């Protein structure tokens, strides 16, 4: 009898332990999914040294900057860092994108160095887009040429020719819905390089980089400076320089994430009284895409969503789903857009033809 009771007691304890472990693992998994995932890509590597000048190699500097940046990001509790490479290995461009996509990342950053036959200097950050001029195309062509080192590259990239301007045009369409976010991050990075590091700001640019095309999230490619410039090359190759560069990027990512978090708070803000949810004279819309290409607002262009409206701000076309002065209604439409596949759809507000901040309206 005593043995039976002890056996039952042991079984009960074991069941309780298994239950606690299951709950803990479930909570851990849920917590991990809630983290802000950043994929860091050190350009080149292994048999592909990238650009070289004297004893400086792009692949080494890019990796050092990435590792320092990753360490800074890992100090944040709500951020998860994933690396495409942490050692001197060769990795094809498609694999880099696959890593980011499988991680369902919130951001993808590819770190590089520039080079030129003169003493050119300064930083520039790229987002995916049609090369605005020949110079941008030449930069992209150099970075894309790594595919020639890959096995079966013609089959892998479906005949893509990095030397052809026409081939680049078709690459940009898949990434257009993330263009606004990519531009926001790129701008913050360049501002920090200019104001905090006192580097020459060569601007935020658009070009057809294959590595950016492979990703389905806001993505940027950072040219941290020219290793062919005597002073800048020495700066980038130094431990101090790499720490400063990674610090400037780290601060930009934190600012970008804070902005995203604040927007989510606005979207999820509970509004109790129905009257308080309606804002006469204000048109809320859900922005689902943005880009330089003018698309017909047919449902087949927008994953089946009907009633899409097109607007233009500067040289960029914006595509909106729904319009209402009822904030609750527009949040429901935002949810519909995200379920349709526009994961980064967000709410915008207009007063007449002027775009204003949603937070200013709500608060």
Helix-strand blueprint:
Elements: H1 2-33, E1 36-42, E2 52-53, E3 56-57, H2 58-74, E4 79-83, H3 93-102, E5 107-114, E6 123-128, H4 134-144, H5 153-156, H6 165-169, H7 179-195, E7 201-207, H8 210-213, E8 219-226, H9 230-237, H10 239-268, E9 283-291, E10 308-313, E11 316-324, H11 327-340, E12 346-351, E13 354-356, H12 358-362
Parallel strand pairs: 1-4, 1-5, 5-8, 6-7
Antiparallel strand pairs: 2-3, 6-8, 9-11, 9-12, 10-11, 12-13
Could you please describe the fold and organization of this structure?
The chain has 363 residues and is α/β, with parallel strands linked by helices. Helix content is 43%, strand content 21%. Helix 2 crosses helix 10 (239-268), helix 7 (179-195) packs across helix 10 (239-268) and helix 9 packs across helix 10. A hairpin with a 2-residue loop joins strand 10 and strand 11 (316-324).
Rg (C-alpha, Å): 24 Å
Mean pLDDT: 77
The low-pLDDT segments are 1-33, 130-148, 153-174, 266-275
Distance between the termini: 69 Å
- Strand arrangement in the largest pleated sheet: 4-1-5-8-6-7
Order of helices and strands: HEEEHEHEEHHHHEHEHHEEEHEEH
Which structural class fits the helix and strand makeup?
Answer: alpha/beta
Number of strands: 13
Principal-axes shape call? elongated
Biggest sheet overview? 6 strands, mixed
Helix content: 40-55%
Strand content: 15-25%
Number of continuous helical runs = 12
């Amino acid at each position: 009898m005593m043995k039976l009771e002890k056996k039952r007691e042991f079984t009960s304890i074991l069941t309780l332990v298994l239950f606690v472990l299951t709950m803990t693992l479930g909570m851990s998994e849920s917590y991990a999914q809630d983290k802000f995932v950043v994929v860091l890509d050190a350009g080149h590597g292994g048999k592909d040294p990238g650009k070289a000048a004297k004893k400086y190699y792009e692949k080494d500097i890019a990796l050092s900057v990435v590792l320092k940046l990753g360490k800074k990001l890992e100090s944040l509790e709500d951020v998860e860092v994933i690396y495409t490479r942490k050692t001197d290995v060769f990795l094809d461009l498609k694999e880099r994108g696959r890593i980011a996509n499988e991680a369902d990342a919130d951001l993808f950053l590819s770190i590089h160095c520039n080079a030129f036959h003169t003493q050119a200097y300064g930083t520039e950050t790229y987002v995916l887009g049609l090369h605005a001029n020949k110079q941008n195309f030449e930069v992209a062509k150099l970075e894309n040429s790594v595919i020639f080192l890959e096995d079966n590259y013609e089959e892998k990239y479906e005949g893509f020719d990095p030397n052809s301007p026409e081939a680049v045009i078709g690459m940009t369409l898949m990434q257009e819905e993330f263009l606004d976010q990519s531009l926001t991050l790129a701008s913050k990075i360049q501002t920090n390089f200019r104001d905090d590091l006192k580097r020459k700001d060569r601007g935020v640019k658009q070009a057809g980089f294959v590595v950016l095309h492979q990703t389905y999230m806001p993505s940027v490619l950072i040219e941290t400076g020219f290793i062919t410039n005597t002073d800048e090359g020495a700066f980038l190759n130094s431990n101090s320089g790499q720490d400063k560069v990674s610090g400037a990027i780290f601060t930009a990512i934190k600012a970008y994430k804070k902005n995203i978090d604040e927007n989510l708070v606005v979207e999820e803000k509970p509004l109790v009284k129905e009257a308080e949810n309606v804002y006469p004279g204000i048109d809320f819309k859900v922005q689902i895409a943005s880009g330089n290409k003018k698309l017909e607002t047919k449902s087949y262009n927008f994953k089946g969503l009907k009633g899409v409206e097109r607007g233009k701000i500067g040289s960029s076309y914006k595509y909106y789903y729904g319009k209402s002065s009822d904030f609750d209604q527009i949040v429901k439409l935002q949810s519909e857009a995200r379920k349709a596949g526009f994961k980064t759809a967000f709410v915008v507000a207009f007063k007449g033809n002027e775009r204003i901040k949603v937070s200013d309206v709500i608060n």
